[in-house]
Design goal:
mainly beta; Immunoglobulin-like; four-stranded antiparallel β-sheet
């Protein structure tokens, strides 16, 4: 996926089992998580279309990732000089080890988790980009038991630089 994101493909993150054992939700398999308005077929497919989704290695980790208040999966066009603020809320099944913010596939900020829940707010100090250039941000959460969650990216294009 990282290579696809570098090539400007807009893909969301999902995780799932590649087995056919008939045990959905098994801790041994990856899980796909969606932020949907309601538990209806229409709303679930809408969340998938909007890439408002993330994946885990099997643990039922809750992950809310936003940039300037916009949800994972979104495409944002920023105005010149606008601050980029990333917020993350993670709730794990074990203690949160680290929350990493990645920008263009490079870790730009790491925070240690204080327990099973963690909140992070980080402002990107590097704002100036060439006009027409696009950045993408996503989050990786690692629990102390080794389980992980990855968010879908948020893409942000710069105007007027």
């Amino acid at each position: 996926m990282q290579k696809a994101w570098e090539k400007a493909y807009k893909l969301g993150v999902l995780a799932s089992s590649d087995t056919h054992t008939g045990t959905p939700g098994n801790e041994e398999a990856g899980l796909a998580a969606l932020w949907a308005r309601a538990l209806t077929r229409k709303d679930l497919f809408e969340a998938l279309r909007k890439r408002c989704c993330y994946g885990t290695t099997g643990a039922r980790i809750l992950l809310d990732f936003r940039l300037n208040g916009r949800m994972m999966g979104e495409e944002i066009r920023e105005e010149s000089g606008e601050e980029r603020v990333v917020t993350v809320l993670a709730a794990g099944t074990a203690n949160i080890g680290t929350i990493e913010i990645l920008k263009n596939n490079a870790v730009v900020h790491t925070q240690q988790g204080p327990g099973k829940t963690a909140r992070l707010e980080w402002g990107d100090p590097v704002k100036k980009r060439a006009a027409g250039r696009e950045d993408f941000y996503y989050v990786r959460v690692t629990q102390t038991d080794g389980n992980k969650a990855w968010s879908s990216p948020i893409w942000i294009s710069s105007a007027g630089y």
